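U., I forgot to send this yesterday:
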Amino acid sequence: MDRIINLKLLHTLINTIPIPVFYKDREGRYRFCNWAFERFFSIQEQDIVGKTAFDLWPADNAIKYDEKDRELFENSGMQEYEWTVGGGDGSPRDVVFRKAVVVNDDGKIIGLVGTIQDITEQKRNREKSQRELAVANALARLYIPLITPRISLSDIAQVVLEEAKKITSSAHGFVGVVSPVTGDLISLTLTDMMQGQCTIEDIENQRIVFPANNDGSYPALWGHALNTGRVFFTNNSPEHPSAKGIPPGHIPLKGFLGAPVLLQDENAGLIGLSHPEDCYTEEDAAAVKRIAEFYALAIRKKRVEEHVTALLNESISANEKLRVSEQSLAEYSVSLERNIQEAMACQKKLVALHFPVCGIIQAAGQYFPCENIGGDIYNVIRVKNKIVFYLCDISGHGVSAAMLSTFVKAYLDDWIRFHNITSPEILMKRLQNLLVEHDLFSENFLTIFAGAYHLFSRKLDWISAGHPLPLLSNSRLYALDDIGKVGPLLSGILSAAEYENNETTIPKQTRMLLYSDGLIEWSRNGDEVFGTKGLYGVFRQNGLSAGSVEAVVHKVQSLIQKDDVSYIFFDFATELKKTYHLSLDTVKTVLDEFEQFIHGRYMGDVFIRALQCFSECVLNAVEHGNKNNPERKTSVTVSCFKKKISFSVQDEGGELRMPFLQNIRRPHRDSIRGRGLFLVNKFANRVRIIENKNVISCDIF
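Result:
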């Protein structure tokens, strides 16, 4: 009988939780699920009760669930793993299963309870971020040959082909240029697709020509891209309307992606790719289009150079030379300006700060380049229980600084995000080796501040390479240079510089501002520079907050800005206080915010019980205390400790009484009243009621 009562109580509880929850017995049979589970899988509870995973799900999923359930029963405790399931609409969904065993009063395992978190969008966003990082990395590598003097178009085409193949995982491809005289497509580089017969070893003496039709159009799949002027792809090459077969000895064509290289409306070249590892996608097409735009700039530059050289060789009048050169350079400038605008949009995306969910920290960041684009970069990335962040300032301004900063950011984000490198000391050594290896910073240099904040201990590991140290504020305003030191700036010629980790503990309720030196280098009409002293003065007067930082940056815009300005503002907090106007339809807002606040700081049983207790208290306050009246307030206070979470919920009703709480420790099974608070009593370690203020507070540890 006790077991039946407990199951009913658990059933009532999980129906208040907005994420899918289910319960299985020791034999792996489903006993109940909540409404969120029903909606996620488009299935009714009565259709799963008494059935096993093998009765309900596809074989591969059922085998996985059974295997993991047995593993949990054998090892007890908690379990977490990722898997792909079929959603209610039939589409695949990436989810995280979190499971825990359920024991009876004798300590015997009688089943398990599990939750399902849909992370499909998170994974898509992560894949999109990886794609954008790869494209930015490719464009950064293309920039080097683009600005290298006296480099041939064939050499640039080879780099273009390699980057296009890499970004699309293609095995084969070619890059060509359209002859402005004949209109034929001349391949400058080509992979081996005919058992060695198509390899070009001496491009200057052996070029493969793809002729145009008599009417100026182009045949076959490669011609379709030039005829339409648009990037296209097909994963079924023989069935495409433009397909004309393949030459004798040519390997079978598996997929094709063609990207025309356009100078305004003129076909200037083509990037052709084939044999992807999987299938071509719209993302592949978009990435190759951006590479084609860089290649177009190289063709334009080469044409201008050739035209100017021809004019000089023909010994025409100086005025005519100047006129034609100016016209060509003007056209090139227009093209360059367009690419700069696109580079601006690309850089804004790259430096956009998407702060990770970490529960106890809030952050804000902004970037204002001195010119159209600039050399400041920053990011904040969560790696397990650490927040890793950096702010880097590349010397110089404009396109050159922007391309170098893109190159550096691509590597930094890759090391942190995908290789889990969180030590500032290791990051600094890798970055130093990278600059020396690529010989990109023999004339440029960079300053950088890198830090790793431990969520549990509040310890901050950090290194500054010639970068201004952050400002901190709690009971006083001070800088990290009070407790650490600044190392030398980074350059490709300073390979012997050494950097050591500094360590400090960030006090509770501290705010921190990390900024580039552009924030202190603006002035009025060339007069006295604002400086660190002026910055300290503003924050001593107005306090260090997100608003006061924005006010300072806003003031920069009205004065003479001498350098790029960027900053990251951190608010380290262990307490959340908010007041809501809620009804039952809007409760999910506060429940989601609570879950985000404690996510990552608490795991396993404490995390699950805190969610259960908090949802019951909020629902009780809204429904029974405030009578579902959205004009009444529901106040929430949450405090985080090392191993304990405490929260209180206050409404504007008048029903909570301590005797009432004591009387519902075992509510009557036929009465709805009191069951929510009964469950709070069951799952919280300590429950208190302040009667005259209508507050219920809980401790979970």
